[in-house]
Specification:
The protein is α+β, with helices and mostly antiparallel strands. The protein contains 8 helices and 16 strands. It has 2 domains: about 110 residues, D-amino Acid Aminotransferase, Chain A, domain 1 (2-Layer Sandwich); about 160 residues, D-amino Acid Aminotransferase, Chain A, domain 2. Helices cover about 30% and strands about 25% of the residues. Strands 7, 8, 9, 10, 11, 12, 13, 14 and 15 form a 9-stranded mixed beta sheet that branches. A 7-stranded antiparallel beta sheet has the order 2-1-6-5-3-4-16. Helix 5 links the parallel strand 7 and strand 8. The longest helix is centred in the last third of the chain and has 16 residues. The protein binds 3-[O-phosphonopyridoxyl]--amino-benzoic acid. The site of 3-[O-phosphonopyridoxyl]--amino-benzoic acid has 15 residues, from helix 6 and strand 13.
């Protein structure tokens, strides 16, 4: 039996999981998504992801045709049918089928897609040794244009930045805001450690309020590490003692070099490694439980 994908209430084989070429999700990037993970039969922060999905949809005036409770059940059912204890879950809501015009009123029914699959992580070597990253020319979307808090299907801003990183031979990119302040990476939030304090950029510079970011801030507070949201320039990042990225896919990954400048000792720092350990512990003990 192959992988099953949830499409509009039905669980279909992977090769049959298709949507119309008239779907505005395809034609205009008109839709929203979430990337979620489960660890050992526990979906991590599912309620938080569902809440963020409904908020993204609300701003786009996209009515998700299921209640939050029904959607949570659909996610869990999809994991169960695929017998996945450790999974990456991609929830996608599209505007649905319409005509060849922008007008969303022509799309009567949004589509719901739930893909559950295995996750491909960065190689273990990068967690042990840390990432080298660069700052790229493409700036993060302005909050007054397409607000980065909306996890929309239009991720071209971040894809451009990712291409710029890849063209320079690195895996991730720091995106700045239009003033030159550090916002975040293409699919991850950025943290630095300086003087035993954890700093991460606030939302108003165009940073997504990442759910992993929030979880790591909670962990730090519990470990009595001071946490602050602070506007950062590249200079502060270059001169940090430690740096790391957080995201659902990457979890928590050390950064040891930014734009050719070594960060701290050039090895993953003590605070980073202790937070990574703490994060691995909570992901294996917290979450919405399901049986496969
Ligand atoms: N910033 C951006 C721009 C993101 O898209 C994060 C930060 C981290 O947020 P969470 O809530 O996951 O801690 C994201 C995460 C992927 C992938 O497969 C991840 C995201 C989007 C697209 C792909 O790595 N979002």
């Amino acid at each position: 039996m192959g992988l099953k994908v949830y499409v509009d209430g039905k669980l279909v084989e992977k090769q049959d999981a298709k949507i119309s070429v008239f779907d505005h999700g395809l034609l205009y990037g008109d839709g929203v998504f979430e990337g979620i993970r489960s660890y050992n039969g526990l979906v991590f922060k599912l309620t938080e992801h569902i809440d963020r999905l409904y908020e993204s949809a609300h701003t786009l005036m996209l009515k998700i045709p299921l209640s939050k409770k029904q959607l949570i059940k659909a996610v869990v059912d999809t994991l169960k049918v695929n017998r996945l204890k450790d999974a990456y879950i991609r929830l996608v809501i599209t505007r649905g089928v319409g005509d060849l015009g922008l007008d969303p009123r022509k799309c009567p029914l949004p589509s719901i897609i739930i893909i559950t699959d295995k996750i491909t992580l960065y190689p273990k070597k990068l967690y042990d040794e840390g990432l080298r990253i660069i700052t790229v020319p493409t700036v993060r979307n302005l909050p007054e244009a397409l607000n980065p808090q909306i996890k929309s299907l239009n991720y071209l801003n971040n894809i451009m930045a990712k291409i710029e990183a890849i063209n320079s031979g690195v895996e991730e990119a720091i995106m700045l805001d239009s003033m030159g302040f550090v916002a975040e990476c293409t699919g991850d939030n950025l943290f630095i450690v300086k003087n035993r304090e954890l700093c991460t950029p606030p939302q108003y510079v165009g940073t997504l309020r990442g759910i992993t970011r929030d979880a790591v801030m909670d962990l730090a507070k519990k470990s009595r590490i001071a946490v602050r949201e602070c506007v950062l320039t590249r200079h502060e990042v270059f001169n940090a003692e430690e740096a790391f990225l957080t995201g659902t896919a990457a979890e928590l990954i050390p950064v040891v070099n930014v734009d050719g400048r070594q960060i701290g000792t050039g090895r993953p720092g003590k605070t980073t490694l202790s937070l990574l350990q703490g994060f691995r512990r909570v992901t294996r003990t917290d979450g919405i439980k399901y049986k496969v």
